[in-house]
Amino acid sequence: MKDLPTTLGDLKKGNYRSRTVKEELRANLIMRIQADQPLFEGIHGYEETVVPALERAILAGHSINLLGLRGQAKTRMARSLVQLLDEWMPVVDGSEINDDPLAPISKFAKDLIASKGDATPIAWVHRDQRYTEKLATPDVTVADLIGDSDPIKAANLKLDYSDERVIHFGLIPRSHRGIFVINELPDLQPRIQVALFNILQEGDVQIRGFKLRLPLDIQFVFTANPEDYTNRGAIITPLKDRIQSQILTHYPPTIEMGMRITAQEVRSPKEQAARVRVPDLLRVLVERIAWEARDSEFVDRKSGVSARLTISALESVISAAERRALRNGEKRTVARISDLQAVVPAITGKIELVYEGEQEGPEKIAHHLLGLAVRNIFAGLFPDPAKSKKRKRPEAESAKTDPYEGIVQQFEAQEIDLIFEATDAEHAKALNAVKGLQQLVRQHHPYLDAEEQVLWCEFILHGLAEHSRIGRSMVAGKARFSDLFNSMLSGGDQEEDLRS
Fold first, then answer.
1. How many whole angstroms separate alpha carbon 405 and alpha carbon 436?
2. Is residue 196 classed as helix, strand or coil in its secondary structure?
3. DSSP state of 103
4. Are 134 and 79 in contact (CB under 8 A)?
5. How far is the C-alpha of 290 from the C-alpha of 284, rounded, in Å?
6. Using CB atoms within 10 A of its CB, is residue 400 exposed (0-12), middle (13-18) or buried (19+)?
7. Any idea which of 47-56, 94-103, 337-346, 381-390 has the lowest mean pLDDT?
8. What distance in Å separates the CA atoms of residue 495 and residue 493, rounded to the nearest whole number?
9. Which one of 162, 191, 291, 417 is at 20 to 30 Å from 232 when CA atoms are compared?
10. How many CA atoms, within 13 angstroms, populate the side-chain half-sphere of residue 106?
11. Model confidence pLDDT, tens digit, residues 390-440
């Protein structure tokens, strides 16, 4: 900043040329495209859908409405647009609304330039200060957004209320030559939405009868949730007509993409990351929970299931494993399938249930979603237990055609308890008591190391329980696996009656 002009005269000598904020965005985007640089950093899954639509809208100089369910990075994308602005912007020093020294619009700036000419002082504003964000709430007023006459200013300056200088500008005029974002636009009262008409169409504002025209230069970005159109409010038709580009967002198209986003957003202290290993299997299961929730008949699909669910769920799994390691005095541990029980609070607070779901209760639905995730992922990684069971075969050939027969038979004569707070050594010992688990893991996934083999052995037991090949009950801090018939007599899983 040392070499930047400090007066209007110096600015003119430097051949500075004014351009609108939309021209800035367009020019800098063109440079990124030509340099083959991404529009956003840390935004995944939108490369072929949302990002091209945003680029077209910016190149066209459009106002933008990002429409999508919660947790789809709408606000993050809006905030990232700041990086397309020039790093520094000159303004008339002391201006409330970032007046362009070469094209002032406020009375203050015009009067100052008229009196001082080329000696008018210039200040420089960083692009990060050219972003304004407002959450639309029912209590937002026209004065908040546009402005109003200020009696205190009038009294202090001893001015009449008809004087333009008594105006206190709202957020939108103060965002002149920048980006202004309104989040959750439908929550804005209709009469307030009407106040935006003239700004979007004509680019100026009108304040309480003042004969005032402010040709504002603003890039407007709105975000909205489709749920709002029916549940809380609506974007009124004339306003929708004035928003030039409406861009639909969506959830990650694949589990792998969802895992990438979740891993990027998880915030774990360094010592926690060093203490707890989270194998990919658990990361897949956490992501699958959100997929099951989005397709569940018990969850309100119009509300959506935010990506924050998987982020919080994975953080909960890591914390559960860390807590166990701390209590057992272990310096390092591997997360387990049983640690998924810790994600229930992350699920119940982040899903909206339909009537049938409310009747069952959020905690029961959470356990149901956990079970579906284990069941469906298991069927993709091992032979389908249901199909293996249904094959007609002589009893002597049963073990050859059904890879689970030998494991299932062991539970007819014994029960196995997996204690949630057991040490890693105790946990591995309990699983080793079930013959055939390790062989099955090695047969289908020979690339796994010893630590992951223990996790996958536990996964097989939970997968067989979800496919009703063995029984399982959660009692007093442990998972008890037993014969299916005995488990049914004792009550079995709490989500048993919800299984599809």
1. 10
2. coil
3. B
4. no
5. 10
6. exposed
7. 381-390
8. 5
9. 291
10. 23
11. 554 555 455 557 899 999 999 988 899 999 999 999 999 999 999 999 999
Q: What tokens were used for 155?
A: 């009294």
| pLDDT at site 29 | 97
Residues 6+ apart with CB under 8 A from 486: 471
Q: Write down the pLDDT at residue 470.
A: 93
Question: 């050594």: which residue's tokens?
Answer: 425
Note whether 480 and 472 are within 8 A (CB). Answer: yes
Grouping H, G, I as helix, E, B as strand and the rest as coil, residue 363 is helix
Helices (runs of H) and strands (runs of E) counted in the chain: 26, 14
Spatial separation of the C-alpha atoms in residues 369 and 356, rounded to whole Å: 15
**DSSP letters for 285-296:** HHHHHHHHHHH-
- List the one residue out of 203, 243, 214 whose CA is nearest residue 67: 243
pLDDT tens track for 265-289: 998 899 999 999 999 999 999 999 9
Q: If pLDDT is split at 50, 70 and 90, which confidence band does 228 have?
A: low
Amino acid at residue number 329 = G
Domain residue spans of the chain: 8-248, 255-381, 383-493
Q: Sign of torsion, CA 75 81 87 92? A: negative
Q: How many CA atoms lie within 13 A of 170 on its CB side?
A: 24
Is residue 432 a contact partner of residue 424, using CB atoms and an 8 Å limit?
A: no
- The residue behind tokens 């030509």 is 34
Q: Comparing C-alpha atoms, which of 335, 330, 332 is closest to residue 278?
A: 335
CA 416 to centroid of chain Cα atoms: 40
192-218 burial code (b ≥16 CB/10 A, e <16):
bbebbeebbeeeebbbeebeeebebbb
Gyration radius (Cα) of the chain, Å: 31
Q: What is the DSSP letter of 47?
A: T
Whether the CB-CB separation of 411 and 470 falls below 8 Å is answered with: yes
Beta-sheet pairing, 218-224 with 131-135:
unpaired
Q: What is the pLDDT of residues 19-28, one digit of tens each?
A: 999 999 999 9
Architecture of the CATH domain 255-381: Orthogonal Bundle (1.10)
pLDDT at residue number 495: 46
Label residue 142 by pLDDT band (50, 70, 90).
Answer: confident
Please tell me the pTM assigned to this model: 0.85
Q: Which pLDDT value is given to residue 405?
A: 92
DSSP character for 147? E
The DSSP element (H or E) to which 181 belongs, if any, is strand 178-183
CATH code, residues 8-248: 3.40.50.300
